[in-house]
């Protein structure tokens, strides 16, 4: 089985790894790449570990003409770049001190010590250049059985880094089957408050991935069961509304799904979790008015599209449907997607070129003409809009 593991890699990646192994024969694939190769899932990043210190790793690779970037020397990490693709290589480590957010580590040459500091058994496996999988904590069994289990004592793993609480739910959604691990759930429930010691940026990063990940509704239910939601979302959560949204198969949009999970005080939430300006603006826009309705005519929808992007209107439709599950929004969203986005054809310079005197009245005229254009379904062309504007200017205020 393991001999075929490396054969599942893309040829370009396998060729790059062969170059690294020629220089660092003791290097092993670690973490997610081993897990996903065994699960026959798509591979994201390819990470390796080595028993040599990072400076020695850099020198050895550079001596063979391989580009190396010191991406995290303090943490024992360098990145080899081969054919424009990154391969992160980290020196084996063991924890000296942890505080729930950061760890003080020292280098080691003991593979099991390094594996013992990882979060879950399915992430603690390594694979050498011969394709042999080294599994110190039963990760292969857990992966096959759909068990997401902490390495060693769950309580200690969480105390080392409280973000592992959220990582547990994310990985359970992706790899778990059946009931969640009892020891893990007990440890999470009793230590939920440790989440308050994490940076909000780390929390939002994990929450986004949970919301758009597999089985998002099941994961939210499990988080509710563990008492995580009140700690994570003190603004309050509406799991029932979230469930109604998910029942209709919404797009994998974290902001949209969050808008259903926390429909009230969302502005407070955006500030607390330090959303980017774009994220905060999207959340606010999704929860604003007007909401497109299935009964609206094409003229009315074009009117809305003139002011609001179609993805925001679609999001409002999803949220409306979650609140009114008897109202289907599928046809409406299809209509929105098929309509051309109207663009108001007139600008101030057009009025000036037509002989209008400059001044603040130009802006007022444009506003009035745009309103007339929208009321007519946004169909009037530039000439018609200009004629209407000149007629207004001729009539005076």
Automatic annotation (TrEMBL):
Residues 182-236 form the tRNA nucleotidyltransferase/poly(A) polymerase RNA and SrmB- binding domain. Its cofactor is Mg(2+). Residues 27-149 form the Poly A polymerase head domain. It holds the Pfam family PolyA_pol_RNAbd. Keywords: Magnesium, Metal-binding, Nucleotide-binding, Nucleotidyltransferase, RNA-binding, Transferase, tRNA processing. InterPro entries: Bact_CCA-adding_enz_type3_sf, NT_sf, PolA_pol_head_dom, PolyA_RNA-bd. The keyword Nucleotidyltransferase applies. GO terms for molecular function: metal ion binding; nucleotide binding; nucleotidyltransferase activity; tRNA binding. SUPFAM superfamilies: Nucleotidyltransferase, Poly A polymerase C-terminal region-like. GO terms for biological process: tRNA processing. Belongs to the tRNA nucleotidyltransferase/poly(A) polymerase family. This is Poly(A) polymerase.
């Amino acid at each position: 089985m393991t001999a075929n593991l490396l054969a599942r890699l893309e040829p370009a990646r396998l060729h790059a790894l062969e170059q690294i192994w020629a220089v660092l024969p003791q290097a092993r694939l670690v973490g997610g790449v081993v897990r996903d190769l065994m699960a026959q899932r798509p591979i994201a990043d390819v990470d390796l570990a080595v028993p040599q210190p990072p400076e020695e790793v850099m020198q050895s690779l550079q001596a063979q003409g391989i580009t190396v970037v010191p991406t995290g020397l303090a943490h024992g990490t360098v990145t080899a770049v081969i054919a424009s693709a990154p391969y992160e290589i980290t020196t084996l480590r063991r924890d000296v001190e942890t505080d729930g957010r950061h760890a003080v580590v020292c280098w080691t040459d003991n593979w099991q010590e390094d594996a013992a500091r990882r979060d879950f058994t399915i992430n603690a496996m390594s694979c050498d250049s011969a394709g042999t999988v080294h599994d110190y904590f039963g990760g292969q069994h857990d992966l096959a059985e759909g068990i997401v289990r902490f390495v060693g004592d769950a309580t200690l793993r969480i105390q080392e880094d409280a973000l592992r609480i959220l990582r547990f739910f994310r990985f359970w959604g992706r790899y778990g089957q059946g009931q969640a691990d009892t020891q893990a759930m007990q440890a999470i429930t009793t230590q939920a408050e440790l989440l308050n010691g994490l940076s909000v940026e780390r929390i939002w990063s994990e929450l986004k991935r949970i919301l758009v990940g597999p089985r998002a509704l099941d994961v939210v239910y499990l988080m509710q069961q563990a008492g995580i939601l009140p700690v994570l979302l003190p603004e309050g959560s509406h799991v029932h509304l979230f469930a109604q949204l998910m029942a209709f198969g919404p797009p994998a949009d974290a902001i949209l799904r969050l808008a259903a999970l926390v429909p009230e005080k969302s502005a407070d939430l955006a500030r607390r979790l330090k959303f980017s300006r774009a994220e905060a603006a999207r959340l606010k826009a999704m929860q604003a008015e007007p909401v497109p309705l299935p009964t609206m005519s094409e003229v009315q929808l074009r009117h809305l599209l003139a002011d609001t992007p179609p993805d925001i209107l679609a999001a409002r439709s999803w949220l409306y449907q979650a609140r009114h599950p008897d109202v289907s929004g599928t046809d409406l969203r299809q209509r929105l997607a098929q309509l051309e986005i109207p663009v108001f054809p007139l600008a101030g310079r057009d009025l000036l070129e037509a002989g209008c005197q400059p001044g603040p009245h130009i802006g007022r005229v444009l506003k009035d003409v745009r309103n007339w254009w929208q009321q007519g379904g946004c169909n009037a062309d530039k000439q018609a809009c200009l004629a209407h504007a000149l007629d207004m200017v001729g009539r005076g205020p």
